[in-house]
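Fill in residues.
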């Protein structure tokens, strides 16, 4: 077995003895290599197993918080040592300046750490040790706010200036308001945004054609660069003195590229940040590959569509390239000294001609909704690389152009490289007149090609774990036992619903009624409590009226009501998408989780409270990322497929075991992150965690157990209001089954009750079921008179019809246009005619 990480390898058999003695042995051998795809570069290989647990075991090895911390920190330390030991220097001189690159290529490592153990603290300590050893570090976090907190913590521990926070490009208006932002001034910020939408990386594309960037180069004081910039201005027929110089490229960006410890949000990642710029003892410019730590999950990439309009743009550009090649060849024809130039332009002309032919056939295939020809596209990509018609993965016809007379940029879609890779991985989808393919995120592309990246998170997603394994590495699991008692509360899913539906306000008010009642009950128990709910329920269910014309931000309205909620109940209130990850405001609080973010079969078109929108889109992205990394196509079916037959009280999951496994892993990760806000791993007292509703299944429980979380007790919801009043526990199994049917707005019949009993694992005699159903229907008839008198005050509701087709549910109408305030009005608005619930639509939200 490879011994690069001996301490972690030894953990498999003796982790407790090693950790208790704090005794780690470190050696370094780099004898094993593998060849990275498309790089032709040697990448050091990692051992096959370096953790106490590999993969997600059903029963994980649970450590104490201190021991889990040591495992995570030691994994980072030994990976850092391996990274520092790989110092391969390559000359990259281009005739204008001496340049060396120090490349350290080590397969990316994954580390999962229980929330509250201190992974961020460990990452900061290792980064400081790396900086002291002369190893530059880049730390990637999800947001600017977290980047700021990271820098403050490191500088507080190690001294001011130890870490540098990345600052994004700033508009002229922002700089006018705050002169301190001047180094990050970008005169073309809106164009940069549009370039990103066209799949470009602006620093490698648009900035090369921007007159402001060329003006800064013109004034840099280096003769070769000044001459190059002057030629560019002359070719475009413009005066350099008509433009102000760019500050970002030549002031702001260099200041962060020389930082020893750099912290940046994930959206800012680029090759420029992944290298540290410096000068060696001989005065030569040296770029050193950074040790990269990615703290928290990242997106795998995005789905890109290339249509006929893009192909036509490429064909037009290729025609211009051929025209330019013909002019150059004619100009130098017969000149012996220009033989090399002529040969180069002949090659460019040949590639352009090949490209035009390939793209015309591609256009024909798209028009017929046929798959493009992979062999043709691959041949074109190889020819383009051979002719040096690519730069930073962008072919000549995909590059951004600049029209000086109009001062505008053209941003053709950057696609060829990503399209070929997606076709090789089998993740291309043909659509009418276009093709959809996968563009890997810059961080993942860097990790695949260059390595020396550690992905550090409590819940690394399945596609990333599989990718890391296929890159020749593994995932270290530092799972700590948490001092928590977890209880599941069944009876209502507390699904989010869709705010655009007419009856949603009444539904949200009903949900808030439950949240407040539960919070008041728990406040009487004593201790600190916090509740995590859907933001939409707060915004539309509070007394503060909100509509689409309201200019206030939803988060501000929710924060205002959360403050009132805390005063009234003594319970903190937060919402999914803001308080379920990356915060520790609720340290050592007891938690109530009401529902969870669910993915709809299609995007809902409005705020998804952190769910990410469409199940189909998220699955396609996860599948594309895994297959692009080399995972087995059999592990990732092309489509989600059919869902479970509806069972009362449960949210249907995909039937296919592979797709189901992905979604369960995704949902369980959300719950683990939310529970982690209590910081139970280091809590001195046992904290209560209650899971109200959400996805309930054995698979979810098993996935939670893989993170060391066990559902210890289950009880019936005694807060949720039903047709027969508050639930105080069901009289018998049939009563419980009927309540479960009402909770998901399903019709009550003998057959439906029988199915519900099976789903709940209960039994009852047929005569008992029939008698209870008859009594329930009689109660509906008696209460209908009362309903009609109340409805005159509430307004006449429409009828909700929920139809099950092949295991899926569709809602064809909505109910409860009213705005109830009193508890009895909430009751009527929730159930409407025939005892049905207020509509919670989209599979994203409920079992029905």
């Amino acid at each position: 077995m490879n011994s690069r990480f001996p301490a972690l390898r030894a953990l498999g058999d003796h982790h407790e003895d090693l950790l208790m003695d704090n005794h780690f042995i470190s050696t370094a051998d780099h004898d094993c290599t593998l060849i990275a795809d498309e790089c032709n570069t040697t990448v050091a290989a990692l051992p096959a197993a370096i953790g106490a647990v590999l993969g997600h075991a059903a029963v994980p090895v649970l450590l104490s918080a201190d021991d889990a911390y040591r495992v995570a920190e030691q994994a980072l330390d030994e990976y850092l040592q391996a990274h520092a030991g790989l110092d391969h220097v390559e000359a990259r001189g281009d005739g204008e300046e001496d340049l060396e690159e120090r490349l350290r290529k080590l397969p990316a490592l994954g580390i999962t750490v229980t929330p509250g153990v201190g992974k961020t603290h460990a990452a900061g300590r290792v980064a400081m040790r790396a900086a002291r050893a002369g190893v530059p570090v880049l730390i990637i976090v999800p947001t600017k706010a977290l980047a700021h907190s990271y820098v403050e913590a490191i500088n507080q521990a190690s001294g001011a200036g130890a870490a540098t926070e990345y600052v994004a490009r700033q508009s002229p208006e922002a700089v006018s308001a705050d002169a301190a932002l001047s180094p990050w001034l970008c005169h073309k910020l809106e164009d940069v945004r549009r370039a990103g939408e066209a799949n470009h990386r602006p620093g490698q594309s648009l900035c090369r054609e921007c007159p402001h960037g060329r003006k800064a180069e013109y004034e840099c004081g280096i003769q070769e660069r000044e001459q190059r910039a002057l030629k560019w201005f002359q070719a475009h027929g413009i005066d350099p003195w008509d433009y102000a110089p760019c500050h970002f490229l030549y002031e702001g960006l260099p200041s962060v590229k020389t930082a020893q410890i750099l912290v940046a949000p994930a959206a800012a990642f680029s090759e420029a940040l992944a290298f540290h710029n410096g000068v060696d003892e001989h005065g030569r410019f040296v770029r050193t590959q950074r040790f990269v730590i990615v703290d928290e999950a990242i997106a795998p990439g995005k789905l890109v569509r290339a249509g006929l309009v893009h192909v036509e743009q490429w064909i037009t550009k290729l025609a211009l390239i051929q025209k330019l090649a013909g002019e150059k060849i004619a100009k130098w024809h017969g000149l012996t000294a220009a033989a090399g130039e002529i040969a180069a332009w002949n090659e460019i002309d040949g590639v352009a001609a090949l490209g035009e032919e390939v793209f015309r056939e591609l256009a024909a295939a798209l028009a017929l909704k046929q798959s493009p020809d992979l062999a043709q596209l691959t041949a074109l990509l190889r020819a383009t690389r051979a002719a040096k018609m690519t730069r930073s993965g962008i072919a000549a016809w995909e590059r951004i152009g600049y029209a000086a007379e109009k001062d505008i940029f053209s941003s053709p879609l950057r696609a060829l490289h990503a399209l070929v890779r997606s076709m090789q991985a089998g993740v291309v989808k043909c659509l009418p007149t276009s093709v959809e393919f996968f563009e890997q995120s810059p961080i993942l592309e860097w990790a695949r090609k260059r390595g020396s990246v550690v992905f550090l998170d409590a819940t690394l997603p399945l596609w990333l774990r599989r990718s890391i394994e296929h890159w020749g590495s593994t995932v270290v699991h530092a799972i700590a036992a948490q001092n928590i008692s977890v209880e599941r509360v069944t009876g209502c899913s507390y699904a989010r619903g869709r705010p655009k539906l007419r009856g949603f306000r009444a539904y949200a008010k009903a949900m808030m009624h439950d949240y407040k009642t539960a919070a008041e009950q728990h406040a009487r128990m004593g201790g600190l409590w916090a509740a995590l709910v859907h933001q939409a329920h707060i915004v539309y269910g509070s007394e503060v009226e909100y509509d689409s014309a309201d200019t206030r931000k939803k988060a501000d309205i929710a924060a205002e009501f959360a403050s009132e909620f805390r005063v009234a109940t003594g319970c903190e209130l937060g919402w999914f998408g803001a308080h379920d990850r990356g915060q520790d405001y609720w340290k050592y609080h007891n938690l109530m989780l009401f529902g969870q973010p669910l993915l709809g079969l299609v995007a809902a078109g409005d705020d998804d409270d952190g769910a990410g929108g469409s199940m189909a889109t998220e699955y396609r992205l996860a599948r594309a990322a895994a297959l692009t990394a080399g995972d087995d196509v059999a592990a990732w079916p092309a489509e989600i497929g059919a869902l479970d037959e509806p069972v009362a009280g449960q949210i249907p999951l995909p039937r296919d075991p592979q797709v189901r496994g992905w979604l369960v892993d995704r949902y369980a990760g959300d719950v683990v992150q939310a529970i982690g806000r209590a910081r139970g791993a280091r809590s001195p007292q046992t904290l209560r965690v209650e899971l109200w509703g959400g996805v309930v299944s054995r698979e979810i429980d098993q996935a939670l157990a893989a993170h060391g979380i066990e559902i210890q007790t289950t009880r019936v919801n005694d807060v949720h209001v039903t047709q027969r009043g508050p639930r105080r526990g069901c009289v018998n199994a049939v009563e419980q089954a009927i309540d479960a049917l009402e909770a998901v707005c399903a019709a009550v019949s003998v057959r439906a009750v029988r199915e519900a009993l099976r789903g709940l694992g209960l039994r009852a005699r047929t005569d008992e079921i029939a008698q209870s159903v008859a009594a329930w229907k009689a109660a509906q008839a008696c209460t209908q008179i009362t309903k009609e008198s109340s409805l005159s005050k509430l307004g006449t509701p429409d009828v909700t019809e929920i139809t099950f087709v092949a295991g899926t549910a569709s809602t064809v109408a909505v109910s409860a246009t009213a705005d109830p305030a009193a508890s009895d009005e909430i009751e009527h608005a929730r159930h409407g005619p025939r005892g049905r619930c207020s509509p919670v639509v989209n599979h994203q939200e409920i079992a029905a």
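The chain has 26 helices and 30 strands.
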